[in-house]
Amino acid sequence: MIYNLRxxxxxxxxxxxxxxxxxxxxxxxxxxxxxxxxxxLIIEPTPAQIRERTCFFQNRISxxxxxxxHRELRVEALSTVEIKRDPVPMAALxxxxxxIREASFNxxxxxxxxxxxxxxxxxxxxxxxxxxLYARQSFTPGRPVLEAAIDLMGxxxxxxxxxxxxxxVSTPLAQAFEQRSGVCQDFAHIMIAGLRGLGLPASYxxxxxxxxxxxxxxxxxxxxxxxxxxxxWCGAQWGWVGLDPTNDILIGDDxxxxxxxxxxxxxxxxxGIILSSGDQKIEVEVDVxxxxx
Length: 293
Hints:
Elements: E1 2-17, E2 19-24, E3 34-44, E4 49-54, E5 60-66, E6 70-83, H1 97-104, H2 129-136, H3 145-159, E7 161-162, H4 173-179, E8 181-182, H5 184-197, E9 202-209, E10 226-233, E11 240-244, E12 249-250, E13 255-261, E14 270-275, E15 280-292
Parallel strand pairs: 7-8
Antiparallel strand pairs: 1-6, 1-15, 2-5, 2-14, 3-6, 4-5, 9-10, 9-13, 10-11, 11-12
Helix pairs in contact: 2-5, 4-5
């Protein structure tokens, strides 16, 4: 499947911004089952300088400086991406989760995709015993690791309520867990906390998912949104497998990866500093448009 992606972020400021220095993670990356044909950024006002680099985890980062005084900043990312992922083998055939736990603690590689980077607590996914106990209900002794993870994913989908008003970006994992509500970022963090608490390597993935409108209704522009899910290391033979607890599905050709990290803090779409006073308003529009099967 080939997709055209459009991600528009508009910042409106309460007073004039005289200087802005930002790091953007809005350009998708190449990887297994994913190839980026082209991508570009359109930024208004035009930056005085912009450069692209890759971080340790191989995410694309655009670093820019804007010196033109402005009260509105528009950042538009346009990309064309092909997704063709191999089907995941039967979950029941995956190794037991205890075997994967032991293997993960014996990893010597420190490459960017090594499981060693995704075992320990991180800023947004601290050690949280209630999440570990919650996950343990799915990870019974000897159970295949992917089968257990799919069971955990399904329980989160059934027992947690998707509510965009329940949390914000900075809401602690513990709060989202206790209130049993939040958004895809919260559900991914909760699942990762449970997996890591059991000694299983799990990473945080940001990206997009194609949305399909009800039959007979047109697709609405800007109706898509950024998304987040989990990738679990299932051993050297099986590698990393993506799981989407918000929708209770394995990652397939409807998911487009933007960035990979330990949690949201590693891969926030936009961060930086501005010189200004007053409030700011943010509007985001995302379009994921299939153009060719």
